[in-house]
Design a protein that fits this description.
- The complex is a heterotrimer.
- In chain A, a hairpin with an 8-residue loop joins β1 and β2.
- Chain A is mainly α.
- In chain A, about 60% of the residues lie in helices and about 0% in strands.
- Chain A has a two-stranded antiparallel sheet with strand order 1-2.
- In chain B, β6 and β7 form a beta hairpin.
- Chain B is an alpha+beta fold.
- Chain B has eleven helices and twelve strands.
- In chain B, the strands form four sheets. In chain B, strands 3-2-1-5-8 form a five-stranded mixed beta sheet, with no helix packed on it.
- Chain B has a domain of about 140 residues: Cytochrome Bc1 Complex, Chain D, domain 2 (Orthogonal Bundle).
- Chain B starts with a helix and ends with a helix.
- In chain B, about 50% of the residues are buried.
- Chain C has three domains: about 120 residues, no CATH class; about 60 residues, no CATH class; about 150 residues, Immunoglobulin-like, CATH 2.60.40.
- Helices cover about 50% and strands about 15% of the residues of chain C.
- By secondary structure, chain C is an alpha+beta fold.
- In chain C, the strands form two sheets. A five-stranded mixed beta sheet of chain C has the order 3-9-8-5-6. A four-stranded mixed beta sheet of chain C has the order 2-1-4-7, with no helix packed on it.
- The termini of chain C are far apart.
- In chain C, α4 runs antiparallel to α5, α5 runs antiparallel to α6 and α6 crosses α8.
- The chains are: A mainly alpha, B alpha+beta, C alpha+beta.
- At the A-B interface, α4, α9, α10, α11 and α12 of A face α1, α3 and α4 of B.
């Protein structure tokens, strides 16, 4: 596993006149990319850190796309009989808002943190399958572009993000929008599934010596549970999407009632995926918050084993509650009762986490940085959202609540107040480590407060309007159904719209913060006095992460290296014996002599590029499928035949005629 | 919501802990008060305003659960608020690195479990009670279709004094008060959902399947509802109402729905309207008893023009007061208020008056006849390849103003 | 000096000239003379060019030139791709005037040969070492060549096999399959237990087998499939009046097009032992109802339970309809039915009715052919 640190020089032509053999001359355009700088250093990288950053950047872009879609929805619903959007456009917008936010923002943002932080937290140099990691990233990027290309190719999908059959069949959704949705999700689904296998193998196999499973940082644990959820849930949605694709494009009759199908088949398949999906969304945020709270309370996570086991329990039980999305679907009282009780059961491990976070802060020394504010915000908002969730678990009550704005309120509180706040906490917390600069705290606090106020102004009133009878997924609401009095449904719809604008501004402050902070002075390597291993690196980490693979002796290893317990017997008193910077310097001084890293490759991005071509082919022309398949086969075989490390012959020969260095230059 | 806003107030402030402690409960109480006041009055689809025994059963279950959730929320948020204020960094030493307290954890796990068991038992009980069908006294079939509801009353002994002839109507379901009605429903195309919040929870209407849901109204009134499963373009325009009336009024209504067809008097505008109707509308819309100039009965064949195969039966259109999937009013706003806001003693009588020519909202009806797809988004274009040229919804017939006058006059007599 | 090539060309030109003169004087035929004269002219032209360029023959003993002159680089190696490309072009043209399939084969061949040719030419420019060049070519082209060649090869074998299987009679396919499997087993045993079998023999044998298979497949494909009789379904039953027939028909054998069970159906009809047809719905039946009411134009699923001791089918009568057979209108019964359901069995019937039952004199009714007492009125409002 070789990487060359020094820049590549163009060799002078040899005096003998014969052309010297070098990869640029021999392979030209097709040479293996070995650079770690320039545009090739980003497009062909297999470095988990660069991949994580690209996931994050693209995900943030889609956050704003989804946010604009949401604001358009709210502008339409600000007043009765709104006329800003037609019914068709509205249906497309709410479908794409949900699809974009769930599949193109929250999941990839969580993947960004998982990709960047999990190898660092377990003391590894990269993930188990670096090229697969790159494939996941590019499939996500191309999949996201593919879905959104539908806006200009005949209209986006308009059947809702849940895409119930038979409304998703061709007679009821004639435009190609649903096909774009189906195929785009297949692409991003492959990305997620591949990534989950990658991270599971990484966590199970590549932990530093001494790091048992119960000494892993809690974010890695929640990440591991999330990857297992992905592993079992993504195949189900893939099957459902294939059935729908064949139904729409190749005349299959899986969802044709005339041919004997039962439309509930789609609902079951979708929600068997859909429910674990919401835990896939929220568990990484839980993991982040479980990291952030201890650091800013100066106390370890309260009840680490309980938090781990409750996370695993949520993952496990999460596969047994899917039909609570179908309480009104006519399943019959016995099925409904079973799922109702199971849904109540899953509230218990979730409650355990809230208790543990609160008790972590209890007796601590709380410092309210922006990351901490977002983490506390998660606790507050998720509690509210979780409690409204418990009211849905009561199935008869849910038959009044489902498909109304009360449900919209619930899931926005848990996804936005839970998932997104957690991710933003992670962003503010890990920004100095990833980019070497701190984000501005004042702008950060404005970001937080505006988002918090905006969020509550937008989704709080939705509890009221939902319970008072406003259904969801409707492009207009009428005065006749809005009730009387000043505080009628119209008023609260208006408040929600104002709230969404406040929320949009608050979210945009994040971008401003990033921009304003770009010229900040370099950040210290351990600005928050953190507890876990990813902080035992430079800011940003070197390409090989750790100069020396750390030996782990305890949970919160980094903390225990900095602080020694000088108390006697049962008395604990912690005295600082080293700073983070000092520990990093010690690691540098004892760097491993030989460090081997995987080499970049272009096959992942080529393969990722071929699959959308096949997808366009399904919609437009079978010939494109053949062309895309040929490129995909080429990419797969090229990838398989290529060694994971570049050979000597892939590097330009050095001018002095010696051997190209195979090792990372050790900085002294 | 309001609770978190009071939390935010305490976070922002830099006053001492004791002042915080005093402000918190005031904030919480204020928040709850605002919540209670901040609701619409007389929201027609309010889920917390039951008007029948099924909705009441749900109410009896959900109110305690909501209160419980509220109490738990206040406690949890209160504790969080307390922690945030009490353990702020004021220069104290590094706190004790407690790793947890298994005993406390287990207690705090078992406690919510017990509470939830306490919630689960009545939940299952209510579920089973709501699924009882043995005490049904009246069965009504409902068929959802993009984007209207067909309601038909099969021949049976129940529903008051019995139904001897099938009654077909759309958009408004009339039931006698105090009667256990079983709505048996399905759909002709995509999944819809039948929901009358003040009478019961919703039930999806799935093509190829038949689901049932109970309705019972204690008092006469007009109970509003909406389709609550996304069903395409005009999902927002698919509404329905249940009109409950005293059993005597219900008998009168039934008689009206099964009366013989009365042709318009010769030479009137309505008579011209009859021929225009036969020419332009009867291909899809059924009027019972209508005969053409040869005396043959005119049978509508909507399956040849509409993809989902059916259209509203217009025999007694003016006995209803909404049309086109109950999205538009047949009554002018004053007349509508007169009927809809009538007290329970008179609402049945007012409803039975139907739509008189003075009360007809001819603006709405004429707009619809002039260009239906422009008024209600539908895929009504005939050039639909994927549906074999059949429309979904009513197309633009290109009627002239005279034809519209005639048809309106004819329809006015359908009561 | 004259090189070998020049000598050849000059000699041929002279010969052609002499031949043209002799033929012209002797035979006097215009075509032959013109032909030979043209040949002579062409050969002379070539000879002239050759002499002018001195046959591009650098003197073999000039060392300096070899190192510095580009032409001293090794010449391109052998290649079949130009020929394949030409073949592709020809097949394409042939296909334009014959079958579209041939045209497509030509295009594919053209593209494949063209791609391979370009790759080879490109690789040969990589360096002056042949070994390195072929490694470059392999690295770039193999990832596509291997899987595509394998796919095409397997595809051809599979396709040929399928044509043979479709051409043989049904019994013949079983026999052929068994024989083929037997041969493969025997040959495998021979390979395993008779050591010393040369690889060339093995490859030869397999090659012969594959060629035989492909040839057989081509022949069978051209000859066409055997007559495969389409299995009759219940849709056809209705048109042929079989819905009134209690006896077994072809559609009732191996009836794979029927749904056996489904949830939340519109109604469940049961044929009792005593020959009575009753119905049940989810929940109570409207009190006093003797007929089943189903909405019009609705996708109704009706389950039929056969509790009698005979195989019975459920049919529905909607009156009459007019069908056109060979230009003539015929009035037939408008019915649909299930296949024969065995004793204790269940089958779903899909009932979608566009017109109300009042339009048919006599209304609509369910019935069981062969059991006169089993009728049930169907009301469609």
């Amino acid at each position: 596993m070789a990487i060359i640190e020094r820049p590549v020089e163009t060799p002078q032509p040899a005096a003998s006149g014969a052309t010297p053999i070098s990869p640029t001359n021999s392979y030209g355009f097709f040479r293996r990319p070995v650079e770690s700088t320039g545009w090739r250093g980003w497009f062909f990288t297999v470095d988990h850190k660069k991949i994580g950053i690209m996931y994050g950047v693209v995900a943030l872009g889609f956050f704003f796309v989804g946010g604009i879609e949401a604001i358009l929805i709210r502008l339409q619903l600000a007043q009765a009989d709104g006329s800003i959007l037609s019914a068709d456009k509205y249906n497309q917008l709410f479908t794409m808002h949900a699809t974009t936010m769930v599949f193109l923002f929250v999941m990839p943002m969580a993947a960004a943190f998982a990709n960047y932080m999990i190898p660092l937290q377990i003391g590894a140099r990269d993930v188990a399958f670096p090229r697969l990691n790159a494939l996941s990233l590019w499939l996500f990027v191309f999949g996201g572009i593919f879905i959104n290309s539908s806006w200009i190719l005949g209209g986006a999908a308009d059947g809702g993000w849940f895409m119930y059959a038979p409304n998703s069949s061709v007679p009821f959704s004639p435009s190609n929008g649903v096909d774009f949705w189906v195929l785009g999700l297949l692409l991003t689904g492959v990305a997620s599934l591949v990534s989950s296998i990658n991270l599971i193998v990484t966590v199970l196999n590549m932990r530093a010596p001494g790091m048992t499973l119960m000494r892993m940082p809690i974010f890695t644990w929640m990440g591991l549970v999330t990857q297992f959820l992905l592993l079992f849930a993504m195949p189900v949605i893939t099957v459902a999407l294939f059935l729908l694709m064949f139904q729409r494009n190749y005349g299959a009759t899986f969802f044709s009632v005339e041919e004997g199908a039962d439309p509930l088949l789609w609902q079951h398949l979708f929600w068997i995926f859909g429910h674990p999906e919401v835990y896939i969304i929220v568990l990484p945020a839980f993991g982040i918050v479980s990291e952030v709270l201890p650091v800013f309370s100066k106390k370890p996570l309260f009840g680490y084993p309980f938090v781990v086991f409750s996370g695993a329990a949520i993952g496990f039980v999460g596969f047994g509650v899917w039909a609570h999305h179908m309480f009104a679907a006519g399943l019959g009282p016995i099925s409904v009762a079973v799922f109702s009780v199971a849904t109540m059961a899953i509230a218990i491990p979730t409650g355990v986490k809230i208790i543990n976070w609160t008790l972590t802060m209890w007796g601590g020394k709380l410092k309210f940085t922006t990351a901490m504010l977002f983490a506390v915000g998660l606790i507050v908002e998720f509690t509210i959202g979780g409690l409204s969730g418990v009211t849905h678990a009561v199935a008869p009550s849910d038959t009044q609540q489902t498909d109304t704005y009360y449900i919209v309120a619930h899931f926005h509180y848990v996804i936005f107040g839970g998932g997104v706040f957690g991710l933003l906490a992670g962003l503010y917390y890990w920004w100095p480590k990833m980019f070497g600069k701190m984000l501005n705290e004042t702008w950060g606090k404005w970001n937080f407060w505006l988002m918090l106020i905006g969020m509550n102004l937008t989704f709080g009133p939705m509890h009221i309007i939902g319970l008072q009878g406003q259904p969801r997924r409707m492009y207009i609401w009428t005065d006749e159904r809005a009730g009387d009095g000043f505080f009628n449904l119209g008023f609260w719809n208006y408040v929600a719209t104002i709230g969404s604008l406040v929320l949009g501004i608050g979210a945009f402050l994040l971008v401003i913060n990033i921009w304003v902070s770009r010229k900040n002075p370099p950040a210290p390597e351990d600005p928050w006095d953190s507890r876990s291993l990813e902080w035992l690196t430079t800011s940003p980490p070197k390409e090989h992460n750790f100069d020396r693979i750390p030996e782990v002796e305890a949970l919160d290893e980094f903390f225990h290296r900095k602080y020694e317990d000088v108390g006697e017997g049962d008395q604990h008193e912690y005295k600082r014996v080293a700073s983070g910077e000092e520990l990093i310097a010690i690691e540098e001084a004892n760097a491993d002599a030989h460090i081997h890293m995987p080499s970049p490759s272009y096959w992942p991005i080529v393969l990722a590029f071929a699959l959308p071509i096949m997808a366009y082919g399904v919609i437009y022309s079978t010939l494109l499928i053949a062309a895309g398949a040929a490129i995909a086969i080429l990419a797969m075989f090229g990838w398989a035949l290529e060694p994971s490390t570049a050979e000597d012959s892939d590097f330009e020969p050095p001018t002095d005629g010696g051997e190209p260095s195979k090792e990372v230059a050790v900085s002294v | 919501m309001s609770n978190s806003r009071s939390e935010m107030a305490s976070l922002r402030s830099t006053t001492t802990f004791s002042k915080m402690r005093r402000k918190l409960p005031i904030g919480i109480v204020a928040g709850l008060g605002l919540l209670a006041a901040g609701c619409a009055q007389d929201a027609p689809q309010d889920t917390f305003d039951p008007a029948g025994e099924n909705a009441q059963k749900i109410q009896d279950l959900q109110v305690p659960v909501f209160i419980l959730a509220g109490v738990v929320g206040v406690i949890v948020l209160g504790v969080v608020g307390f922690v945030l204020v009490r353990y702020r960094d004021r220069g104290q030493a590094i706190p004790e690195q407690s790793h947890g307290n298994p005993a406390l954890e287990i207690v705090l796990t078992i406690l919510p479990a017990l509470i939830l068991i306490g919630v689960a038992i009545p939940t299952v009980g209510t579920l089973m009670a709501l699924d009882e069908t043995d005490d049904t006294e009246c069965i009504i079939n409902v068929t959802g279709q993009q984007w209207w509801w067909e309601v038909d009353y099969p021949v049976q002994d129940g529903c008051g004094s019995g139904i001897s002839e099938v009654i077909v109507t759309s958009g408004q379901m009339v039931i006698p008060t105090g009667t256990n009605v079983l709505v048996r429903g399905t759909s002709r195309d995509v999944i819809h959902s039948w929901w009358i919040p003040r009478l019961n929870g919703k039930r999806d209407m799935v093509p190829g399947r038949v689901h049932h849901v109970r309705l019972q109204a204690d008092e006469p009134g007009i109970y509003a509802g909406q389709c609550t499963e996304f069903c395409g373009l005009s999902h927002a325009n698919m509404r329905m109402e249940v009109i409950a009336m005293e059993p005597d009024d219900f008998e009168i209504w039934k008689q009206g729905q099964t009366a013989d067809y009365v042709a318009p008097a010769e030479g009137t505008l309505a008579a011209e309207g009859e021929s225009t109707f036969i020419a332009q509308c009867s291909g899809c819309h059924q009027v019972n008893g209508l005969t053409d100039s040869d005396g043959d009965p005119v049978i509508a064949k909507p399956a040849t023009a509409v993809y989902s195969g059916a259209t509203p039966n217009l025999s007694w259109l003016m006995t209803r007061n909404t049309f086109a999937g109950a999205s538009f009013n047949l009554l002018t706003p004053e007349c509508r208020a007169d009927v809809w806001d009538a007290p329970p003693e008179t609402v049945g009588e007012k409803y039975l008056e139907g739509v008189s020519p003075e009360c007809l909202n001819s603006v709405e009806l004429r707009e619809w006849l002039r260009d239906a797809p422009a008024k209600k988004p539908m895929y009504a274009s005939g050039a639909l390849e994927d549906t074999n040229g059949l429309t979904r919804g009513m197309p633009d017939l290109g009627l002239s103003e005279d034809q519209i006058d005639q048809i309106v006059a004819y329809l006015l007599e359908r009561q | 000096m004259l090189t070998t090539g020049s000598k050849l060309l000059i000699g041929s030109a002279v010969l052609a000239t002499i031949a043209a003169i002799v033929y012209g004087i002797d035979q006097g035929g215009a075509i032959g003379t013109v032909g030979l004269a043209s040949a002579a002219a062409a050969l002379s032209f070539l000879a002239g060019v050759n002499l002018l360029t001195r046959d591009a023959n650098v003197f073999a003993d000039d060392e300096n030139v070899i190192d510095s002159c580009e032409a001293a680089d090794p010449a391109p190696g052998n290649s079949i791709w130009p020929m394949a490309f030409a073949l592709g072009a020809v097949v394409l043209c042939v296909g334009l005037v014959t079958y579209p399939a041939v045209f497509i084969v030509g295009i594919v061949l053209l593209l494949a040969a063209g791609a391979e040719w370009m790759t080879q030419a490109w690789a040969e420019q990589a360096s002056h070492e042949a070994a390195h060049n072929s490694e470059v070519r392999s690295r770039i082209a193999n990832p596509l060549e291997f899987p595509l060649a394998a796919a095409i090869g397997v595809g051809i074998v599979v396709f040929a096999f399928s044509r043979i299987m479709l051409w043989l009679e049904k019994v013949g396919t079983v026999v052929a399959f068994g024989v083929l499997a037997g041969i493969i087993v025997i040959v495998a045993f021979l390979f395993a237990y008779r050591g010393g079998l040369r690889s060339r023999t093995a490859i030869g044998a397999i090659g012969v087998a594959v060629v035989g298979l492909v040839a057989g497949g081509a022949a069978a494909g051209l000859d066409g499939e055997r007559d495969i009789h389409p299995h009759e379904t219940t849709a056809e039953l209705a048109d042929e009046g079989i819905c009134e027939d209690p006896e077994e028909t072809e559609a009732d054998h191996n009836a794979a097009q029927s749904v056996g069970a489904t949830a939340a159906v519109a109604a469940e009809l049961t044929l009792s032992e005593s020959g009575e047809l009753t119905f049940e719905v989810n929940g109570p039946i409207p009190a006093g109802a003797t007929a089943l009411t189903l909405p019009s134009s609705n996708l109704n699923n009706v389950l039929f339970h056969n509790e009698s001791s005979e195989d019975r089918r459920l049919s529905v009568d909607f009156g009459t309809k007019t069908v056109t057979h060979d230009g003539e209108d015929e009035v037939v019964a408008n019915q649909i039915c299930t296949t024969l359901v065995e004793d204790g069995g269940v089958q779903n019937m899909f009932v979608e009715v566009g017109l109300p039952s009042s339009t048919n004199p006599g209304g609509y009714f369910f019935f069981v052919p062969g059991v006169d007492t089993a009728t049930l009125e169907l009301v469609v409002p």
